[in-house]
Amino acid sequence: MTIIALKNMTKSYGPRKILSDASFHVQDGDFVGIVGRSGSGKSTLLNILGCLDTADRGEYFFDHQLIQSKDEKQKTILRRDHIGFIVQDYGLIREKNVFYNIALPLLCKNVPKKEIQYSIETLSNSLHIRNLIDKYPDQLSGGEAQRVAIARALIRKPKVILADEPTGALDEAAELNILNLLQNLNQTDGVTIVLVTHNQVVADLCKKRYSILDGKIVEV
Ligand SMILES: Nc1ncnc2c1ncn2[C@@H]1O[C@H](COP(=O)(O)OP(=O)(O)OP(=O)(O)O)[C@@H](O)[C@H]1O
Ligand SMILES: [Mg+2]
After folding, report:
1. What are the tens digits of pLDDT across the range 141-160?
2. Which of 2, 17, 113, 184 has its CA 20 to 30 A from that of 33?
3. Average pLDDT, rounded, for the chain
4. What is the pLDDT of residues 89-139, one digit of tens each?
5. CB neighbours of 162 closer than 8 A, spacing ≥ 6?
6. CB count in 10 Å sphere of residue 125
7. Whose Cα sits closest to atom 18 in ligand 1?
8. Is the dihedral of CA 135, 126, 183, 103 positive or negative?
C-alpha cells in the first residue's frame, strides 16, 4: 500500500526551482534514504512530506488523504498522530527540560502521566539519555540534543518517521545505535522511514535510495 504519494510537485524559492514536476512514492513499511548534495532540496522535500511546507503546484497524498484540502489544524493533528519528524536543527523548546520536550506529543493528547513516564523511561534507556532528563536544551551537546529529538519523534509510535540527517551530529557508536533502533522499528513494527543522509554507510542500510537531481526525485 502506498503511504506517501507526491505527484508532479513544483517548489520554487524566487526564480530557483528546487522541485520541478517531481513525483515520489513510498510504500507502507519502506525504509527509504534520500541522498544528494547540499542545497539540492532534501530538507525542502521532507518539510513538504511532513506537512510543514506546501508546494507551489502538484498534489501530495499522505495515507490517501489529499493534504492540500486540509487546513492548518487538520495538518497539525495528522502530523502529531501519524508522523514522527526529526528535523535537521533538532527543534527543541529551549525553555523546557528534556523530559517535557520528549513528552510534548503525548501531553497534547492528554495521555495519563504514568504512561508518559513509562514511555520516556523506556525510550531514554534505549537512546542513552536517561541522565539528561532534567537538563535544558542549551546544556546538551549536539549529539545529545539529536537523541532527545529522536526520542520525541518516536514517543507516539508514529506510522511514518521523517528524519533529516538524524545521525549527523553523532559519533559512530551512537549513530549505529540509532540506526539499529530505526531498523528495529521498521522490521518489527512496520514503521515506514524516510531519512536524509550524507553518510554512505547509513544510505547503504536503507532498502531504497533516492537523490534529487535537477528538481526530480530519482532512484539511485
Ligand atoms: N525559506 C527559504 N527561502 C529561500 N531559499 C530557501 C529557503 N529554504 C531553502 N532555500 C534554498 O533552497 C535550496 C534547497 O534547500 P534545502 O534546505 O532543501 O537543501 P538540502 O538539500 O536540505 O541541503 P543540506 O544538505 O545542506 O541540508 C537551497 O539552495 C536553499 O538555500
Ligand atoms: Mg537539509
Report:
1. 888 998 999 999 999 889 99
2. 17
3. 92
4. 788 999 999 999 999 989 888 889 999 999 999 999 988 999 999 999 999
5. 46, 49, 50, 83, 84, 85, 86, 194, 195
6. 10
7. 41
8. negative
Cell of 92: 527543541
Q: What does the alpha-carbon distance between residue 181 and residue 123 come to, in Å, rounded to a whole number? A: 10
The CATH number of the structural domain formed by 31-53+75-219 is 3.40.50.300
Res 13 pLDDT > 90: yes
Residues 6+ apart with CB under 8 A from 61: 2, 4, 5, 7, 67
Beta strands in the chain (DSSP E): 2-13, 16-27, 31-35, 57-62, 65-66, 83-86, 160-164, 192-196, 208-213, 216-219
The span from the CA of 101 to the CA of 202, in Å, is 26
Give the nearest ligand 1 atom to 88 CA: 27
pLDDT at position 114 is: 95
Reduced to 3 states (helix: H, G, I; strand: E, B; else coil), residue 2 is strand
Q: Which three cell numbers stand for residue 31?
A: 525504509
| 39 CA distance to ligand 1 middle (Å) | 5
Question: Do residues 127 and 147 lie in contact, with contact meaning Cβ atoms separated by under 8 Å?
Answer: yes
| 33 C-alpha to ligand 2 centroid (Å) | 13
Cell reading at 141: 551537546
Grid cell, residue 39, equals 542545497
Average pLDDT over residues 23-50: 95
Q: What is the pLDDT of residue 109?
A: 81
